[in-house]
Amino acid sequence: MNSEITLRKAETIDRDIIWGIIQQSIERRKQDGSTQWQNGYPNLGTVESDIAKGFAYVLTVDGEIAVYAALILNDEPAYSTIEGAWLSDGEFVVVHRVAVDEKFAGQGMVKKLFDHIEEFTKSHGIQSVKVDTNHDNIAMLKILEGKGYSYCGEVLLKDGMRKAFEKIII
């Protein structure tokens, strides 16, 4: 039997579940030896802000939250300065703070998330998806490569340099 997988905007009632998933991801990154998310960011305030601003999205499996991500339209100040070059300068969706519930880890959920994000992007007539990740986040680097994202260079976020990627959708 196929599960129903949907992407929806997160609501205030989802806050604690999302925060729990992010805490799992922070610990998983630590166990993997990654330096990403090891300095108090993201935190509960980040989740609350994402929800309040309408950036918070969840991928659900049969109604249960499996993955969290922040989707931001055309707004990532750090992306205006890149050591390298973006593929495009049109409208874009920024993907930040991807976190998977450990119950769904290893099941290809982040790939499914990106499928849904790309469909969302296309349905809104937006040109591309931009994303960054830490140099030592091997799982995300492999996913981005597998999904056809192009490495564009490095961007400086408040917690350090990140590898930046873009995929043209339309």
TrEMBL record:
The keyword Transferase applies. Gene3D superfamilies: 3.40.630.30. CDD domains: NAT_SF (cd04301). PROSITE patterns: GNAT. Keywords: Transferase. SUPFAM superfamilies: Acyl-CoA N-acyltransferases (Nat). Residues 5-166 form the N-acetyltransferase domain. GO terms for molecular function: acyltransferase activity, transferring groups other than amino-acyl groups. The keyword Signal does not apply. It comes from the Bacteria. This is GNAT family N-acetyltransferase. It comes from Chryseobacterium pennipullorum. The lineage of its organism: Bacteria, Pseudomonadati, Bacteroidota, Flavobacteriia, Flavobacteriales.
